[in-house]
Amino acid sequence: MPRPTDLSDADERVLRHLHDAGADYPALVAANTGLHIPLVERRIATLEDRGYVEAATGERIYRITEPGRRALAGDPPVARPTADGDGPEETVADGGTPSPEAE
Predict the structure, then answer these.
(1) How far lies 51's CA from each of 19, 62, 100, in Å?
(2) Is 86 within the bounds of a domain?
(3) Domain count for the chain
(4) What is the pLDDT of residues 70-99, one digit of tens each?
(5) Does any domain span residue 99?
(6) End-to-end CA gap in the chain
(7) Domain holding 38: CATH number?
């Protein structure tokens, strides 16, 4: 399977575990991936912001989403609408270019 280009090694390990487990607590993701809990918590927060994982319950149990499965498979990200609704918006992490305001 090709390595997704927009995912870090830690992101890929978290997504692979959630794909295989279905859903899990961050501490158990850490235990099963060999990553430190604070790193897993940060990566889950980022992956959740990107729509790749979501809370499965009211507790801190997370599962992979369909966009997360696509990212894990190496498929290009689906463009999200911009805040003003004028077209797709890609983040730098998704392979987009930084906006002029960010420079």
Answers:
(1) 14, 12, 25
(2) no
(3) 1
(4) 999 987 665 555 455 554 444 444 444 444
(5) no
(6) 35
(7) 1.10.10.10
Domain span at 14: 9-76
pLDDT tens for 23-72 read 999 999 999 999 999 999 999 999 999 999 999 988 899 999 999 999 99
- β-bridge mates for residue 62, sequence order: 24, 55
* Lookup: tokens for 82: 């911009």
Q: Which residue bears the tokens 């090709």?
A: 2
Q: Pick from 80, 97, 72: which is nearest to 7 by CA?
A: 72
Q: Residue 25 falls within a domain, yes or no?
A: yes
d(CA 73, CA 40): 20
Please give the C-alpha separations between residue 85 and each of 3, 8, 64, 91, in angstroms, as whole numbers.
31, 29, 26, 15
- Pair 72, 15: CB distance under 8 Å: yes
51 within domain boundaries? yes
